[in-house]
Structures are given as structure tokens and as C-alpha cells.
Design brief:
Layout: E1 11-16, H1 18-21, E2 26-27, E3 31-32, H2 34-46, E4 52-55, H3 63-76, E5 81-85, H4 88-91, H5 98-114, E6 118-123, H6 138-155, E7 158-161, H7 183-196, H8 220-243, E8 256-261
Parallel strand pairs: 1-4, 1-5, 5-6, 6-7
Antiparallel strand pairs: 2-3, 4-8
């Protein structure tokens, strides 16, 4: 990605689901930021101030849908760098198949790298200590992370291995719904990807624990009440959408489908 090897501004395209869209970092009223926006900002600050950035992510998408809907548009944009982050929505489905999900991710890795793009991805931290009701999903998570690591190695994909660093499961890095990163968490994801891509000024600080001990959740009756409230507020509606064949991304399109300058606002943050 060095500027002396390109005759055009650096082109970055993000593919994925709600995490890449930025859910948990801002809101739909004021706008979502997210790790992809933050990574684009780091690239503009440290690599190429003229970088162009597109974000094709749509919340609720399974890995197969990301491949079917976003890969061709991404290739058409001819990115120098692409991030591919998907699979958690599949992980939560009853019919989860780690080989199938990893196959969709690997197909995207292969197509993008074959066109000359530098590709980066992540593994996923074990959040079951934050979501006790989901402890049965740990074997699925381990299986998916293992396959992602293998696929990334086969295709020379840069990997931010969040699944290997317990600090990334600190509750302060996750939003109230426990499924999406908080602003701090999105910043850590961006920092991890920057490190995996060897951006100037990046380091391994994203792997380190946050200062101070993580907050302890309530125990006993208060803890049980909290779990019930979480299940009613987030898990129940999610299951309801699945039973009705609906998705949180129904009717939504990519938030940033065209390659646009990153620094088009006074504070240097990603603009519309």
C-alpha cells in the first residue's frame, strides 16, 4: 500500500455486517462511526491523506449474504485494501456450519487478493462470560476462529486475532446489548487491524487490558433479573425476527457505497 507504488489515492473498501457498519458506535439518528470509519481515519492520518473509503456493510447479514451482495461491488471499486468481517450472525443460527461460513469468507479473501487487494480480517473474542445464556456457543466460536486463521494464512490475509487476547472481552469494550462493540471496542478493533496491516505508528496496545479491573456484574437475584431484562430487550426480539424470517437489515443498503474522501469534515473524521 505504499504511496510510491500507486498512481491514485489509496482505496479502502469495508465488507461485513453490523460491526463493520458501526452499530454500537453512535446511533442511527446522529450517524454510526465504527471500526471501519476509524481505520479509514488512521489511514488518512498516517498513510495517505487523500485516501478514498467505501463501506458496503449492512447489519444482520450472514457471511453468505455478504459474499453474494457485497463482493462484486467491492471488486468493481478495485480496492487497494479491503476488510472482511462477518460470521457472528451465522454463529447464532441453529443451523450454523463452520465450514460453510469459513468457505464464504475464504472465497472473499481469494477474490480480493487475486485482484491485488491487501485484505484484513479478525477473529472473534469469547463473549460468553458477558452472555451466560450463550455459553453453549463457545465450541462454535472456537471452530470458526480456527478456520478463519487457516484461511487467512492460506491467502496472506492480515489478521487481528482478537480471539487470542482475553482483554478484548472486557465488558467496557462492548455495548449494552453485549453483541456490538462500544466506541472503545470499535477503537480497539481499528487499532488491531492497523497493527496487522503494519500502519505507521501502530503497536500492540490493543491487546493489553484496560486500566483498572473490569466492572463486576450483579450477582444473585439482581444478576438474574439483569439477564432476564437482557433476554427480553435483545435476545427475544432477535429470536422473533428469525422466526418471522426477518432481519435487522431488511430494507437497508450500504451506508457508504461509493469511494469518497475520508477527510471531508472540519475535524478530519469520516464524512457522509
Amino acid at each position: 500500500m505504499p504511496s510510491d507504488e500507486r498512481s491514485h489515492p489509496l482505496r479502502y473498501v469495508a465488507l461485513g455486517d453490523s460491526q463493520t457498519e458501526g452499530v454500537g458506535d453512535g446511533d442511527d439518528a446522529t450517524g454510526l462511526r465504527g471500526f471501519a470509519d476509524r481505520l479509514a481515519e488512521l489511514m488518512a492520518a498516517r498513510l495517505d491523506p487523500e485516501v478514498r473509503y467505501a463501506n458496503l456493510a449492512v447489519r444482520g447479514r450472514l457471511a453468505g449474504a455478504v459474499r453474494a451482495e457485497q463482493l462484486a461491488p467491492a471488486l468493481a471499486l478495485r480496492p487497494d485494501l479491503a476488510t472482511v468481517v462477518a460470521g457472528v450472525n451465522d454463529l447464532l443460527r441453529p443451523g450454523f456450519d463452520a465450514d460453510e461460513v469459513a468457505g464464504d469468507l475464504e472465497a472473499m479473501f481469494a477474490a480480493l487478493t487475486a485482484q491485488g487487494a491487501r485484505v484484513a480480517t479478525v477473529t472473534f473474542p469469547d463473549l460468553t462470560r458477558l452472555i451466560p445464556l450463550a455459553r453453549g456457543l463457545s465450541p462454535r466460536l472456537i471452530a470458526l476462529n480456527h478456520r478463519v486463521r487457516q484461511a487467512a494464512e492460506r491467502h496472506g490475509v492480515a489478521l487481528a486475532d482478537f480471539g487470542s487476547h482475553p482483554a478484548t472481552a472486557d465488558p467496557r469494550m462492548w455495548s449494552f446489548d453485549r453483541l456490538h462493540a462500544s466506541p472503545l471496542g470499535h477503537a480497539r478493533i481499528a487499532a488491531g487491524l492497523a497493527r496487522s496491516l503494519e500502519l505507521p505508528g501502530s503497536d500492540d496496545s490493543w491487546t493489553r487490558p484496560l486500566p483498572g479491573p473490569p466492572p463486576l456484574g450483579p450477582k444473585g437475584l439482581r444478576g438474574a433479573v439483569g439477564e432476564v431484562r437482557w433476554a427480553v430487550g435483545f435476545l427475544g426480539p432477535w429470536i422473533g425476527r428469525r422466526l418471522r424470517g426477518r432481519s435487522s437489515g431488511d430494507g437497508r443498503t450500504a451506508k457508504r457505497p461509493a469511494l469518497l474522501p475520508v477527510r471531508d469534515s472540519a475535524d478530519g473524521s469520516v464524512g457522509a
